[in-house]
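Here is the promised in-class demo. Please do not try to memorize the tokens; focus on the logic of going from shape to residues.
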């Protein structure tokens, strides 16, 4: 009985180890729905659909896990950038047209102002260490009726949606690709099928909204010809390209910034700053360490890590021991302390970091301060 339990434990830990992969070289996963069809169509009282993309990162739509090996109880994957074959502005209408039946008698166009569209998946249930694949969609948009160049507000959606990818075994990448697409279609269809499409009293010219979107991207961070060297005390300083702590020097360890020295020769405590710029690259302070911000359109992502103990509030070594025995508890404790490389994206609308697939929430916010210090 003891040997059988130990064998099962080791198999589970092998699965866990295989999932702890490095995320430095980010590949791309393209979601092309050419051969994927929904089970049914949803009727809407409009003759066409248009997308107005207000997202900072217009090329990418999140991060997905590409399965590289799946045999028996072992699975390996790499984290990849998710994208459509074309921009969200052009491709999302094509995708939604696969789900929707339009009304040819209508004179109105459905316009969606998209503020967030992020897909991700979670392969491992870190509470029971079982392979339970799930697709998540972080979606935020406002829907309008367009007629005679006037937009009338219909409704807004701002939520995190999820759907299990049903599979008895650990699927290979080609199977995962099909399951993800079917799940995403189902999530999108769920959003539109129960809407009442009632117009509100809020109306304005489409040109005004288009101008507002253009102004949204006119941040000094993007429009200034030079990135100013110094330390950002806040997210606002980062966006305004106005570091408040200058001049500074950077102490290097090979190619990496090890510490920052202020004008008085004192080492700057990373916990007191938001990030910094060395003139060519920008960095964010996360977990008290420096991580380079990689630009993606007008958005950013960076490579860091998570810990298994932060994901499920697992018991400590003493709590394990009475139930599993000293040896097994020691093994579990060792894996609880493992760090898992992970890609994070910076939410440019607010001072937060996207972490949907780990906590089931859109951003870390206070959770970063409470759990990730």
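The designed amino acids, position by position:
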């Amino acid at each position: 009985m003891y040997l059988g339990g130990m064998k099962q434990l080791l198999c589970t830990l092998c699965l866990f180890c295989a999932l702890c992969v490095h995320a430095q070289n980010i590949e791309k996963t393209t979601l092309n729905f050419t051969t994927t069809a929904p089970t049914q169509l949803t009727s809407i009282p409009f003759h066409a659909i248009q997308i107005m993309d207000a997202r900072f990162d217009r090329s990418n739509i999140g991060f997905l896990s590409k399965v590289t090996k799946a045999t028996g109880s072992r699975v390996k994957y790499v984290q990849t950038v998710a994208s459509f074959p074309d921009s969200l502005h052009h491709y999302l209408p094509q995708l939604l047209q696969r789900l929707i039946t339009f009304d040819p008698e209508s004179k109105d166009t459905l316009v969606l102002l998209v503020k967030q569209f992020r897909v991700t998946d979670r392969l491992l249930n870190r509470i029971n260490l079982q392979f339970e694949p799930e697709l998540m969609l972080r979606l935020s948009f406002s829907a309008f009726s367009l007629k005679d160049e006037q937009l009338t507000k219909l409704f807004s959606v701002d939520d995190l949606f999820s759907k299990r990818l049903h599979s008895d075994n650990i699927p290979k990448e080609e199977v995962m690709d099909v399951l993800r697409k079917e799940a995403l279609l189902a999530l999108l269809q769920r959003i539109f099928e129960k809407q009442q499409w009632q117009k509100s009293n809020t109306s304005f010219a489409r040109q005004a909204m288009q101008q507002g979107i253009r102004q949204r991207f006119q941040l000094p961070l993007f429009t200034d010809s030079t990135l100013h060297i110094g330390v950002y005390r806040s997210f606002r300083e980062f966006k305004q390209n106005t570091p408040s702590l200058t001049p500074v020097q950077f102490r290097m360890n090979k190619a990496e910034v090890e510490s920052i020295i202020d004008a008085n020769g004192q080492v700057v405590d990373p916990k007191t700053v938001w990030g910094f710029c060395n003139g060519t690259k920008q960095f964010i302070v996360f977990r008290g360490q420096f991580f380079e911000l990689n630009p993606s359109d007008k958005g950013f992502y960076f490579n860091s890590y998570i810990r298994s103990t932060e994901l499920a509030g697992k018991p400590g070594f003493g709590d394990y021991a009475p139930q599993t025995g000293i040896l097994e508890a020691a093994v579990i404790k060792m894996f609880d302390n493992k760090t898992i490389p992970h890609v994070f994206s910076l939410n440019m609308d607010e001072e937060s970091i996207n972490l949907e697939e780990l906590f089931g929430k859109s951003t870390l916010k206070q959770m970063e301060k409470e759990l990730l210090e």
